[in-house]
Amino acid sequence: MDYVEIEVKARTVDLAVEAAMQELGIDTRDEVEVQVITEPVKGFLGMGGQDAVVRVKRRPAKRRRNRKRRGNEDSAQSGNKNTANRQQDATRSAKNGEKRSTRKPERQSGGKHVRTESKVSDDRPTMSLEEQATVTREFLEGLVDAFGLEGTVNTRIEDDVIVADVEGDQTEAMVGIRGTVRSAIHELTRTVLQRYSQDTARLRLDIAGYAERRRKALSIYAEQLIEQLAAEGGEIMLEPMSPADRKVIHDIAGEHAGVTSYSEGEPPRRYVVLSRVDGSEEE
User: Per residue in 226-240, pLDDT tens?
Assistant: First the structure.
């Protein structure tokens, strides 16, 4: 008979195997074959971990064969009896399978077993903006301590957006080249908020004043490129940038009637193209 094979995910391999055995209706581990698909991985500060994934199926039972061959039987008669025996075995196997497990896997039209999974309810609470701001501040303070740095974290709410500022001379180490570390911390903080609340607020994070300095530098850079376009025309393709940096360029370009901007490429190599609009003049 075909033995149902299921995959289960849990915090550890042992917990995943126990859950699979319970689903298959098996009491002892000797009755199953276990294949570890993914080993569990611990996360940083309780985030970013990975559960274990195992594939489990019932171990085939050993059968005794008491039948003896008969060399005198007619081949046609033997074939008919073998067919009847196979049908009886299939019937008995199906009945035994129904007795062993009360949960039967669904079958697709192709005959493959499909594991049915119950929907897990979302037990996360709905937190207010103030509560989410508190979670953000506490997480970032713990992160600064984990880096072994001295700094302070301030949070406020502006237009339904949580604004978090990590300040201190030593916190420059949390910025990284072109803000790569800051971007990673921003995504990690958003993940923390999503873990604690259903309706996650938007988050704007600045570390050591980098975001403001970057915005001003990009604004000056964009103004210089727009002046070049006004004098020479054509198009200017900028280097790949993050979504926040591209928005600064688009905002500056939008302030000039004779210039248009658009993004091209695929992340993370997406970039901005500045182009002068034909037939219009800069005031």
Answer: 999 999 989 999 999
Which residue in this structure is represented by tokens 């035994």? 96
Whose CA is closest to 100, among 108, 92, 110?
92
The DSSP symbol for 56 reads E
Amino acid at 139: F
**Are 205 and 190 contacting, i.e. CB atoms less than 8 angstroms apart?**
no
- Can you read off the two tokens belonging to residue 174? 């949390």
Helix (H) or strand (E) segment spanning residue 117: none
- Token pair 């591209």 is found at 246
In contact, 113 and 105? CB cutoff 8 Å:
yes
166-223 pLDDT, tens digit each: 999 999 999 998 888 998 999 999 999 998 888 889 999 999 999 889 999 999 999 9
Q: How far apart are CA 48 and CA 192, in angstroms?
A: 10
**278: nearest Cα among 261, 259, 251:** 259
| Under 8 Å between Cβ of 237 and 273 | yes
- Please report the DSSP string for 204-228 in residue order: EEEETTHHHHHHHHHHHHHHHHHHH
Only one residue has tokens 């009360």, namely 102
Q: CA–CA separation, 267 vs 172, rounded Å? A: 26
